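Reopening: structure tokens for the iron/sulfur cluster complex, inputs below.
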Amino acid sequence: MIDQEKWSTILEEYEHLDVAPVTEPQRQYYFIKKCQQYVKQESEELGRPLYCKIVTFGCQMNARDSEKLTGILEEIGYEMIDQEEKADFVIYNTCTVRENANQRVYGRLGQLNRVKRKNTHMLIGLCGCMMQEPHVVEKLKKSYRFVDLIFGTHNIYKFAEVLATRFESGRMVIDIWKDTDRIVEDLPSDRKYSFKSGVNIMFGCNNFCSYCIVPYVRGRERSRNPKDIIREVERLVSDGVKEVMLLGQNVNSYGKTLEDPMTFAELLREIEKVDGLERLRFMTSHPKDLSDDLIAVMKDSSKICHHLHLPVQSGSTRILKKMNRRYTKEQYLELVEKIRKAVPDISLTTDIIVGFPQETEEDFQETLDVVRKVRFDSAFTFIYSKRTGTPASVMEGQVPQEVVKDRFDRLLKEVQAIAAKECARFESTVRTALVEEVNDQDPSLVTGRLDNNLLVHFPGTKEMIGALVPVRLLTCKGFYYIGEAVEK
Ligand code: SAH
Ligand code: SF4
Ligand code: F3S
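Re-run output (same inputs, fresh job):
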């Protein structure tokens, strides 16, 4: 829940303004107040609260954006629920990193239209990365007229304003920006978990890996001011948060565009000083610019988790070059060695793409070789998906589907076998778990996350949620553990 008292004091003075302020975030406070009136009126007519459901696709960035939308929606007066069919307002926060993510949204929209036909006052909103693609918006405008509002990734802070426009006009509202250099602070936000939270440290991406659509839909890289980040972390901690995950498409290039440039390692050192913060994580680290200083910070820190997600994408230097990743197979392996030397119990995870244009069996063997040499604790494996507008989409030599599928299956088998063995290396040790929830299948167990990002199930009660508990890892079940709490 958001801090209602704090926000009603802040918002109070915007209630009787006649014109919207031009400065942000004050302008949004004004529109939140406006939307409150519409929602109140409609809820009085119905004799019940208005319900909202946000469905989030894609990565942690989108998850964090959904929390921001939730904060604004709760302030406006919506109650968040789980069932989409019962909601008065359904929002899809979309992802377009691969084609199948895209197709799922169209499929679900079709179903939602049937619900809306019975429930005509229902609002449907679409946002997220897919909306930044002009051909998607064209298709929606033409064939999905029942959608009420469409907005993008750059102007998410303007959500209340877009919604107010929809309430006033009664028509489809589309507000998409091509890019922005702006970061608006101090808007309401609600967290999914009381004890952990994501914190954006930067937005966008400048890397232009040749297969990837993210730089086109999330815009140019811009870093948040370190002061704003630290203030947010301090607030979260005073609100009971134990674990913070710093978010960026490539955290290693944090701070380059700031007026007073600062490195990611320096930022980590500052955040670590926040009293009461217990655990610090970050995502994602690009291998090309992971500094020695960052490794040193990880080694010295008592708060930074011993887990590093280090996407390799391919093990073939030839393919890495075509992918524009800017490192070789050897450089990647050397980096892994350096990290392991400094932090021996580190868990390494990765992302791998199979079937990039012109990938041969030999290239694929190089990928398998990296997998066998590094022995990742887990790996997300993806079939290459052609994204319109990216350089790779027009490369010659797209690999036939059956070849890709066969490589994908072989890779998955290898990755899983290695991960199961690696996971078992912590068996019978005691490690601290942050308790996240009561186990769905067996309510006598709770589920905790270890600092290496693996889960452990152990006997416990719901009162333990949010606590850091030392747990003996009794048996490894492939990619999670069964354990027991031990006395501190
Ligand atoms: N910024 C992060 C990744 C964001 S996208 C990074 O650079 O590590 C998450 C993952 O999706 C990528 O690591 C990549 O493995 C995968 N991915 C991105 N574009 C893809 C595409 N066109 N086809 C298949 N997988 C893709
Ligand atoms: Fe995409 Fe590469 Fe940027 Fe990651 S670093 S978001 S893979 S372009
Ligand atoms: Fe998807 Fe956008 Fe994330 S495309 S992976 S939700 S940045």
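The chain has four domains: 4-175, 193-305, 338-425, 429-485. The chain has a mean pLDDT of 95. Marking as resolved unless the reporter disagrees.
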